Amino acid sequence: MNQRVLLEVGGLIETPTSVITGPSYILWNQSTIEETGAGEYLGDRSLLTVIRRRNRIAMPGLVNTHGHAAMTLFRSAGDDVPLEKWLKEKIYPLERQLTKEAVYWGTQLACWEMLTSGTTCFTDMYFYMNESARAVHESGIRGVLSIGLLGFTEEMQKQGLADSKSHYETWHGAGEGRISVMLGPHAPYTCPPAFLLQITELSQLLDLPMQIHLSETAYEVAESYRQHGTSPIGLMHSLGVLNRPVLAAHCVHVDDKDISLLAAHDVRVAHNPQSNLKLGSGIAPAVKMRQAGITLGLGTDGAASNNNLDMFEELRLAATLHKGVLQDATAITAPEALEMATVSGARAVFRPTGDGTLTAGAVADVVLLNLESPRFLPTYDLVSNIVYSASAEDVTDVFVAGQEVVRKGEPVTLDTEQIRYQIERITRNFERK
Ligand SMILES: [Zn+2]
């Protein structure tokens, strides 16, 4: 394939508020978009690879701002229990049985599911992240990766900091920039204040953002008040954690003071509506946070608490859930939901400006949807079709950094038969309660 690719489509979502309905094109050179436009490309075509897909719509790849990729291994292994019980009785005993190999194949499975459902960029926070990074590298997806840091003992803290440093040295910027690294303190209830301070220092030293679970359940917030006399977000503020770039997952139980702290420090929030509903944690005040100027992305969380990695579901849920809660049909509009899943998502995970759009200078992370699907008939409003009507089944082709990674619904970079075999082999041996 030539380095310069001309993709001709039947509709183009440049951004959620800049849409071309009808024949249009994207031209990219290696991994970067050079030009987009309506109608036919009128420049010199002689040195271009031309892909003509007039029965497809091109949209920016979806950004999944929170998850634990290898938890695909625990999909449906412990459902219908609240978070604390779910972690202690279902998930931790399974995680103790994890091996490097299991994480590698679990992450491959996640990449298969995400790429074929239109996600081109995701964040991960887990263990054996070297194996996860290897799977991400091979799959062609864009990944923002963190070692999940738990600070129950001093030994664990020391090891976590050393591992994070070497993870950064090995993987930050790998895959021609497709992989970036963040630091991943798991949560205030698993990382004591002194450890959080050390992680914050390392974040400064390596110039890396951090991602952390914050205020996911009412129990977590009540415990924080009991132990520290303040909310989890108040604690992060008093420790100086919020002076660094931070992506906070969940923020379900936040009050007005928490929201102003998040806004004042430009903390990015990963909103995971489905995971929060399924674990009975609650509903994050997404509209209030958006109104306060906070950058919100959408996330699936791990496949053990969702139970899939389908961002089309999150997109639709984010757009409908808050309408119901607030009894306000304008609460989050279709373009606003799509913005959360693309351009705001990219900002939330600290990708460069332009990511999450199909505009000149942005990375060529492109998803094609089947315009011939019944869900796109008729097309009064392409963005509404995508948010309220489309499903992951409508994704036909995906490009990340200009490279084709999904063709006709099938991954081109992954051996799906091998993944299926390995997942069945590995999970057969797990002991479950
Ligand atoms: Zn999580």
From TrEMBL:
Reactions it catalyzes: S-methyl-5'-thioadenosine + H2O + H(+) = S-methyl-5'-thioinosine + NH4(+); S-adenosyl-L-homocysteine + H2O + H(+) = S-inosyl-L-homocysteine + NH4(+)
Q: Which UniProt keywords apply?
A: Hydrolase, Metal-binding, Zinc
The organism's place on the tree of life at top rank = Bacteria
Has keyword Hydrolase?
Answer: yes
- Gene Ontology molecular function, alphabetical: 5'-methylthioadenosine deaminase activity; metal ion binding; S-adenosylhomocysteine deaminase activity
* Pfam (any one): Amidohydro_1
Q: Which cofactor does it need?
A: Zn(2+)
Describe cofactor binding as the record notes it.
Binds 1 zinc ion per subunit.
**Enzyme Commission code:** 3.5.4.28, 3.5.4.31
Q: Where is the Amidohydrolase-related domain?
A: 57-405
- Presence of keyword Secreted: no
Summarize where substrate binds, as residue positions: E95, H186, E216, D301
Where do the annotations place Zn(2+) binding?
H66, H68, H213, D301
Q: What class of enzyme is it?
A: hydrolase
InterPro entries associated with the record: Amidohydro-rel (IPR006680), Deaminase_MtaD/DadD (IPR023512), Metal-dep_hydrolase_composite (IPR011059), Metal_Hydrolase (IPR032466), MTA/SAH_deaminase (IPR050287)
Q: Which family does it belong to?
A: Belongs to the metallo-dependent hydrolases superfamily. MTA/SAH deaminase family.
Report the function annotation for this chain. Answer: Catalyzes the deamination of 5-methylthioadenosine and S-adenosyl-L-homocysteine into 5-methylthioinosine and S-inosyl-L-homocysteine, respectively. Is also able to deaminate adenosine.
Q: What is this protein called?
A: 5-methylthioadenosine/S-adenosylhomocysteine deaminase
The organism is Alicyclobacillus mengziensis
